């Protein structure tokens, strides 16, 4: 109750501050149009953000431990978050700066008009790609290697239960968590990538075929896709995984293959829709009519006339689809029916490490373990989304 | 007369990506009370932007970078949002190009009509509604008492445009900005909207800025004309002076376009086999017949213009000839031999003979292919030329259409201007070495000067290569300049056909007459004469309906 | 008033019929998928250690000796009368121990279904007003700092996995600042306020997920609308910004916003599965995942059908509501 009072009091104060600030600005600038026509809501917004910023700064400089020596985890997490944000922003800024001055003219031009979020996205995707491809070289240990040191705490400091050989500690059966995190990039990202490619191959080719030929084939495929899309994809995936697990029996690797196929098929319905819609938009163009009237065959129409024009929207869709597939696989793994051990993957790691989150109050570092794996997933999807958002914005901006 | 609006050295900038670039470089104009100023220019001249700036309004991504706009002593550039709001709608009103998009689909016409007067406190709701009905009557809308109770999508385009003029008039403003109000309409509809607009502006002695790209239209409407070109002023004069003695080269060139005339050709000899013969074609989509019993011939090296308003079946005829829409009855003959109705059944040789040039060059060229690839494909496909020979032929074709091969062969369509793209479309058709080309509104999306260039090119190619053209168009000026024969269509039926000279001299069929007389001419008195001749009730839709 | 109800009614009825047909075909897909299990169905389901009695019971229960079509008709008929069958887990349990009362799938699902609806309801109650308000604000002040900031925030939130957000919330609202329980302990006869408190964390997680998507879509719909010529016309008539929004934008924005809300509530259905597992929330999603793990086919089938039905229903609602709010369809020519 008191909290509510404080909050409403603060909001009222912001409102008053906003009104006052606008008034002052109006008088000092001689009623410049910028302040004259400013709505009160906007002034309030400025005051409110100033308050939040102030609170953030104040909180950042709180001591990290109480006088009794107990760590104040909230402050530590807040500091990590702010530091992480600043480091990422700086990295993206430097990356964009480098992109503007190094490389071919085309990419330099691209970097010139790029927002920071997109630069961040591209940088992250590059880092993930490198880690995924060279996981074997980067990781200090094997992903399934079991050591004689169980439940080593992270931090690498023997005084707090760590071990310098395992900077992030080990799990219940003694596997190095850092190595598993790195291999996770290879497995989770790699499998998601293959699945998306497969989905695009199936959905894309059928979609273009339907758009070009139309008629009964289009009707058949479209109605089929309608039905498949009427079942929520994660639910459908879980249903089919139940059956696949019976087929796979004790062959765990086979289940992973089935998962790839199942998700690819489910996701190809979405790709089909898009490819068909994009294809239909192109098919009505006069240059397609001209090619048809010239007597061109189906192969030429699809590969030479339609496909080159569909690439841009398809590429953006590829990014979005990849995120979706990646999240579905992570969710399945998190639920225990996705990528199977001994392959290391992030979804399973989150599930296995989840209980450590309850240690946050006395050992903040340990509590970050499940968040690290979950964050690794989130970071990549956020990065891809930033890039896709920029691409879509760019292509829509060109039309104006 | 007292001064109403003064625009001085107005500079407008538009945002592209993150930087601002100029779209209007210092335009000045003045307007007295009750005066009508015509603002004319091609697309991209900045005339709409200037028109909106005269209201103190800029669209998103546009800003006033310099100069002043003064309306009746009020500085609109620096006025507060409140001050401007009190003027807009009440003293300065706006009539947009597309009435269908500019009326809110969720409200009835009369409710949108009364909104301005009520908000500005000029009249009460009831009073304003009655006034609205009166205005509808003056604007000669059918059923003035009831039409206001309809939703915008229930009313036709020409009527909506008049309803919007009535709405602009609802507060009896001092100034109305008309932004291309008849561009989207057919000629017969255009004329009644023009008559209505002019009447109401005269009745209430309202000042107006009339923005358009059509010289003949502006000649009817304006007291004075100002010509803009790419954001710059070209010249300004009273309407008569401008028409009779244009000063600047650019203005003169605009007038000259109308004078192009392709040399008349002798009639085809009796008994000659026509290149294309449309015989009793009936065709349609679904259950509806769009074409009924259409027949006409096109002879070698001659141009047949097919004219009619939207929905008359001109394009459907083209689709029947190309084989995209197999006719239900009737035949298409090529050199006296029947073509298979479906293009998929036609031989490569038959397909080659019939080529097509499209209205929108933007959608007619694949944006991902270079010009050389676009023109090269039919060369390779039909003639089997490859490598060096193909390149040589492509260059030859580019020279034919007056584009420098070295400069253009490697470019993408996006890097070309509208006229250049249309030329590439012509080259692609020529590459097949056809006998017959269908030109579907090929000049209607182009500015006048560019359009004239295209017409000259097509005429030259016809003389050189003995090509036959079928020219689909709604623009009679184009017909006058290039056609040998004319086919007039209405509602899927051929109303009248014959040699051009015959068609353009009376007596005509009633519909041809209506169509011909509805095309505005470059004579400021044309509309008055026409109205005097026919009477107000005998123009536009009303006249069409009577037939 | 020229409101031609029959025309609209016809379209709405058509959509309803289409929805029913889709549901029917979906039931076939689910049935066929399950029947694609390999080898001896009963044996596979129960594993090698199954008692012969259990295997026999399942064969009997599913009428495995009959042809596929007969079995489908029987299954569908039973579902229509509310009989979703008997859980295999129950069967196995009962046959190995003998005796004991059998719980049907329907009786297992019913209370959990109510719980899930409650969770979704709380989520919608928080997410919908906040999302629409924020979306409209972002659209009105597009390009501003506020808009850019919310864009980054919502984009991040949309693309994060559910469990990441869930654990973040647990960390901050349950572990570091113990305000809410991290496990949702729901039981019969709970007071409403208690129940709301226990549901709060999963509801907040789901809110974060759908809020972002809903807000982005609302923003896009409003921006699209504000670019219409009739909005410019209204502004050129000298109408105040507030009135432009309320009178000119809102009536036309209703259809797209309703569409956005319904689509996102449909999206909740997928989100609910993972979130319920994280918080051990006794809803239908958790039941479904448990059934998937032990391959309890009747439960999996039933849950799947319920999820699909809800999904189709929400999409159908979106469709119908946007038809009803379209003036062009309400007032035909």
From TrEMBL, chain A:
GO terms of biological process kind: transmembrane transport
Main location: membrane
Coiled coil: none
Membrane topology, record value: Multi-pass membrane protein
Domain of life: Bacteria
Keyword Transferase: no
Keyword Cell membrane tagged: yes
Record-level GO cellular component terms: plasma membrane
Family: Belongs to the binding-protein-dependent transport system permease family.
Protein name stated in the entry: Peptide/nickel transport system permease protein
Lineage, top ranks: Bacteria, Pseudomonadati, Pseudomonadota, Alphaproteobacteria, Rhodobacterales
TrEMBL record, chain B:
Residue stretches spanning the membrane: none
Membrane topology: Peripheral membrane protein
Cellular localization per UniProt: Cell inner membrane
GO cellular component: plasma membrane
Keywords: ATP-binding, Cell inner membrane, Cell membrane, Membrane, Nucleotide-binding, Translocase, Transport
Gene3D superfamilies with a match to the protein in the record: P-loop containing nucleotide triphosphate hydrolases
GO biological process terms, semicolon-separated: peptide transport
Keyword DNA damage: no
Domain ABC transporter: 5-255, 276-516
GO molecular function: ATP binding; ATP hydrolysis activity
Domain of life according to the entry: Bacteria
Similarity annotation: Belongs to the ABC transporter superfamily.
PANTHER family assigned to the protein according to its UniProt record, in alphabetical order: ATPASE AAA-TYPE CORE DOMAIN-CONTAINING PROTEIN (PTHR43297:SF14), OLIGOPEPTIDE TRANSPORT ATP-BINDING PROTEIN APPD (PTHR43297)
Protein's UniProt name: Peptide/nickel transport system ATP-binding protein
Phylogenetic classification of the source organism: Bacteria, Pseudomonadati, Pseudomonadota, Alphaproteobacteria, Rhodobacterales
Automatic annotation (TrEMBL), chain C:
InterPro entries: BPD_transp_1_N, MetI-like, MetI-like_sf
Pfam families the UniProt entry points to: BPD_transp_1, BPD_transp_1_N
Biological processes annotated in GO: transmembrane transport
Record key words, sorted: Cell membrane, Membrane, Transmembrane, Transmembrane helix, Transport
GO cellular component: plasma membrane
Keyword Transmembrane recorded: yes
SUPFAM superfamilies listed in its UniProt record: MetI-like
Localization per record: Cell membrane
Transmembrane segments: 12-34, 117-140, 152-176, 196-215, 253-279, 299-324
Keyword tRNA processing listed: no
Domain ABC transmembrane type-1 residues, every copy: 113-318
Membrane-protein topology: Multi-pass membrane protein
Record-linked Gene3D superfamilies: MetI-like
Family affiliation: Belongs to the binding-protein-dependent transport system permease family.
Record-given protein name: Peptide/nickel transport system permease protein
UniProt organism field: Marinovum algicola
């Amino acid at each position: 109750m008191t909290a509510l009072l404080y909050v409403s009091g603060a909001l009222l104060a912001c409102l008053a501050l906003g009104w006052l600030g606008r008034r002052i600005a109006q008088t000092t600038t001689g009623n410049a149009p910028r302040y004259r026509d400013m709505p009160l809501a906007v002034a309030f917004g400025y005051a409110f953000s100033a308050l939040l910023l102030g609170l953030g700064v104040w909180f950042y400089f709180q001591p990290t431990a109480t006088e009794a020596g107990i760590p104040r985890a909230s402050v530590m997490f807040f500091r990590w978050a702010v530091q992480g944000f600043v480091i990422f922003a700086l990295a993206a800024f430097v990356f964009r700066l480098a992109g503007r001055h190094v490389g071919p003219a085309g990419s330099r031009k691209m970097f010139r008009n790029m927002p920071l979020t997109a630069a961040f996205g591209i940088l992250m995707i590059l880092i993930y790609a490198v880690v995924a491809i060279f996981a074997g070289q980067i990781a200090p240990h094997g992903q399934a290697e079991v050591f004689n040191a169980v439940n080593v705490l992270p931090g690498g400091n023997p005084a707090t239960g760590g071990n310098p050989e395992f900077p992030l500690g080990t799990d219940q059966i003694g596997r190095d968590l850092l190595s598993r995190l790195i291999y996770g990039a290879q497995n989770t990202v790699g499998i998601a990538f293959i699945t998306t490619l497969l989905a695009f191959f199936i959905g894309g080719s059928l979609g273009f075929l339907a758009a070009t030929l139309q008629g009964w084939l289009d009707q058949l495929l479209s109605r089929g896709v309608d039905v498949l899309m009427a079942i929520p994809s994660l639910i459908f995936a879980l249903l089919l995984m139940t059956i696949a697990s019976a087929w796979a029996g004790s062959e765990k690797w086979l289940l992973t293959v089935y998962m790839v196929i199942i998700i690819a098929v489910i996701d190809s319905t979405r790709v089909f829709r898009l490819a068909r819609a994009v294809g239909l938009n192109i098919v009505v163009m006069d240059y397609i009519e001209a090619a048809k009237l010239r007597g061109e065959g189906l192969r030429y129409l699809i590969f030479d006339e339609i496909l080159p024009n569909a690439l841009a929207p398809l590429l953006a869709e590829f990014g979005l689809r990849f995120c979706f597939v990646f999240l579905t696989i992570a969710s399945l793994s998190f639920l225990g029916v996705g990528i199977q051990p001994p392959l290391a993957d992030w979804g399973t790691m989150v599930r296995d490490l989840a209980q450590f989150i309850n240690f946050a109050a006395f050992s903040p570092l340990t509590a970050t373990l499940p968040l690290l794996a979950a964050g690794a997933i989130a970071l990549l999807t956020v990065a891809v989304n930033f890039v896709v958002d920029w691409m879509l914005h760019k292509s829509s901006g060109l039309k104006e | 007369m007292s001064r109403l609006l003064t625009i001085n050295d107005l500079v407008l900038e538009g945002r592209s990506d993150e930087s601002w670039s100029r779209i209007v470089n210092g335009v000045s104009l003045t307007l007295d009370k009750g005066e009508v100023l015509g603002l004319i220019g091609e697309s991209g001249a900045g005339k709409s932007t200037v028109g909106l700036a005269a209201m103190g309004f800029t669209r998103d991504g546009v800003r006033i970078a310099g100069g002043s706009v003064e309306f009746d002593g009020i500085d609109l550039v620096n006025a507060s949002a409140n001050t401007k709001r009190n003027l807009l709608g009440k003293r300065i009103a706006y009539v947009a190009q597309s009435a269908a998009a500019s009326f809110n689909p969720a409200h009835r016409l009369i409710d949108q009509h009364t909104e301005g007067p009520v908000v500005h406190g000029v009249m009460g709701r009831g009073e304003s509604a009655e006034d609205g009905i009166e205005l509808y009557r003056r604007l000669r809308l059918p059923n003035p008492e009831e039409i206001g109770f309809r939703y915008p999508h229930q009313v036709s385009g020409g009527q909506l445009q008049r309803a919007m003029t009535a709405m602009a008039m609802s507060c009896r403003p001092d100034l109305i900005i008309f932004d291309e109000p008849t561009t989207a309409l057919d000629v017969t509809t255009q004329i009644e909207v023009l008559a209505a607009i002019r009447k109401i502006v005269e009745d209430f002695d309202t000042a107006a800025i009339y923005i358009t790209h059509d010289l003949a239209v502006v000649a009817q409407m304006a007291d004075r004309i100002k010509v803009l070109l790419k954001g710059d002023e070209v010249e300004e004069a009273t309407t008569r002076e401008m028409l009779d003695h244009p000063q600047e080269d650019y203005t003169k060139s605009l007038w000259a376009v109308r004078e192009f005339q392709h040399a008349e050709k002798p009639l085809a000899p009796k008994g000659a086999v026509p290149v294309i013969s449309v015989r009793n074609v009936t065709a349609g989509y679904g259950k509806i017949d769009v074409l009924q019993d259409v027949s006409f011939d096109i002879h070698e090296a001659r141009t047949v213009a097919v004219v009619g308003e939207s929905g008359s079946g001109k394009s459907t005829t083209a689709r029947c000839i190309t084989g995209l829409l197999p006719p239900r009855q009737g035949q298409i003959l090529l050199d006296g031999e029947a073509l298979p109705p479906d293009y998929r059944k036609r031989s490569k040789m038959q397909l080659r003979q019939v080529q097509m040039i499209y209205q929108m060059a933007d959608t007619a060229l694949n944006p991902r292919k270079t010009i050389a690839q676009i023109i090269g494909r039919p060369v390779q496909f039909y003639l089997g030329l490859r490598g060096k020979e193909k390149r040589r032929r492509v260059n030859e074709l580019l020279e034919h259409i007056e584009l420098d091969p070295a400069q253009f062969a490697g470019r993408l369509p996006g890097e070309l201007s509208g006229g250049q793209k249309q030329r590439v479309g012509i080259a692609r058709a020529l590459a097949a070495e056809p006998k017959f080309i269908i030109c579907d509104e090929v000049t209607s999306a182009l500015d006048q000067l560019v359009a004239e260039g295209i017409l000259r090119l097509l005429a030259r190619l016809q003389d050189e290569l003995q090509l036959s053209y079928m020219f689909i168009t709604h623009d009679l000026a184009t017909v006058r300049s290039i056609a040998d024969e004319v086919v007039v269509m209405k509602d899927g039926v051929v109303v009248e056909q014959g040699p051009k000279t015959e068609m353009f001299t009376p007596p005509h069929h009633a519909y041809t007459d209506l169509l011909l007389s509805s095309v505005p001419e470059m004579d400021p008195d044309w509309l008055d004469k026409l109205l005097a001749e026919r009477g107000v009730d005998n123009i536009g839709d009303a006249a069409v309906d009577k037939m | 008033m020229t409101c031609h109800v029959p025309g609209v009614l016809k379209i709405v009825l058509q959509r309803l019929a289409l929805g029913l047909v889709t549901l029917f075909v979906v039931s076939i897909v689910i049935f066929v998928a399950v029947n694609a299990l390999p080898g001896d169905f009963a044996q596979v389901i129960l594993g090698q250690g199954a008692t012969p009695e259990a295997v026999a019971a399942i064969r009997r229960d599913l009428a495995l000796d009959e042809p596929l079509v007969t079995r489908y008709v029987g299954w569908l008929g039973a579902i229509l009368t509310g009989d979703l069958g008997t859980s295999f887990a129950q069967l196995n349990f009962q046959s190995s121990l003998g005796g004991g009362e059998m719980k049907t799938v329907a009786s297992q699902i019913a209370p959990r279904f109510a719980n899930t609806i409650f969770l979704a309801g709380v989520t919608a109650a928080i997410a919908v007003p906040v999302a629409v308000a924020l979306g409209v604000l972002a659209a009105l002040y597009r390009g501003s700092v506020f808009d850019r900031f919310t864009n980054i925030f919502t984009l991040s939130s949309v693309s994060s996995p559910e469990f990441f957000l869930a654990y973040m919330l647990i960390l901050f609202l349950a572990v570091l600042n113990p305000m809410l329980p991290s496990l949702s302990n729901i039981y019969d006869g709970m007071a409403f306020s208690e129940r709301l408190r226990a549901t709060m964390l999963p509801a907040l997680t789901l809110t974060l997920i759908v809020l972002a998507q809903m807000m982005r879509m609302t923003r896009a719909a409003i921006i699209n609308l504000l670019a219409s010529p009739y909005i410019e016309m209204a502004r050129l008539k000298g109408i105040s910004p507030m009135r432009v929004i309320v009178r000119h934008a809102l009536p036309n924005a209703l259809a797209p916003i309703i569409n956005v809300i319904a689509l996102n509530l449909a999206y909740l259905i997928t989100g609910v599965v993972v979130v319920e597992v994280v918080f051990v929330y006794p809803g239908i999603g958790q039941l479904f995942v448990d059934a998937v793990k032990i391959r309890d086919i009747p439960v999996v089938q039933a849950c799947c059908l319920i999820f699909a039905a809800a999904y189709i229903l929400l999409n159908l609602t979106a469709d119908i509501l946007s038809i009803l709010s379209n003036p062009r369809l309400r007032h035909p020519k």
